[in-house]
Design goal:
The chain is mainly alpha-helical. About 60% of the residues lie in helices and about 5% in strands. The chain has helices at about 30-50, 55-80, 85-105, 110-145, and strands at about 150-155, 170. The chain has a two-stranded antiparallel ribbon. It is globular, with a radius of gyration of 17 Å. The relative contact order is 0.20. The structure holds fe (ii) ion (2 copies). One fe (ii) ion binds near residues 68 and 133. Keywords: Iron, Metal-binding, Oxygen transport, Transport. This is Hemerythrin.
Length: about 170
């Protein structure tokens, strides 16, 4: 599996737990946040679906990921975002892994390979969102609104956030 899918970047989820959306994922650029919510749902489906539906669930994830990554890469291209290539390279590595696993399933591999991919995706996403997507979100928000996004996040028990002592936190992100 590609090195881009390191399972150790997730600080908010126990290994093996189903990925679920929480406000900690909000980056402040609404179109990206909506896509990321859909990404989380697609990964959760891949973690939880029955074995018979794994191939179609993986195909649905791939369709989502292609559109998701193309949209971000289009934003970067349209706005001359710096360091777009390393972001796009990480997307490409993920898609390579997804396609490798889909081929392995077609070749008769055990379903476990798709479950391992789902776990790797669940581990990969928070780190990617935190670093690469957050920078793009800020960039797009600045261009759209002329400033950094204001992100409202509900406090979540057991989940560390920048200012976890308030029931609703408002502030600029990173
Ligand atoms: Fe993204
Ligand atoms: Fe991205």
């Amino acid at each position: 599996m590609a090195a881009a899918l390191s399972p150790d970047q997730n600080t908010q989820r126990q290994p093996g737990a189903t990925l679920s959306w929480n406000d900690g994922f909000l980056l402040g650029f609404a179109p990206m946040d909506e896509t990321h919510h859909a990404f989380v749902d697609c990964v959760a489906a891949l973690q939880q679906c029955d074995e018979a539906s794994l191939p179609e669930t993986l195909a649905a994830f791939e369709n989502h990921a292609v559109a998701h990554f193309e949209q971000e890469e289009q934003w970067m291209q349209d706005t001359s975002f710096p360091a777009a290539q390393c972001h796009a390279d990480e997307h490409a590595a993920v898609l390579r892994s997804v396609r490798e696993v889909a081929q392995m399933l077609r070749d008769g591999a055990a379903c476990q390979v798709a479950r391992e991919l789902a776990e790797a995706l669940a581990g990969w996403f928070p780190g990617h969102a935190d670093y690469m997507d957050a920078a793009l979100s800020h960039w797009m928000s600045k261009r759209t609104h002329g400033g950094m996004p204001v992100v409202l996040r509900r406090a979540m028990p057991g989940i560390a956030t920048a200012a976890s002592d308030s029931s609703l936190q408002a502030g600029t992100t990173r």
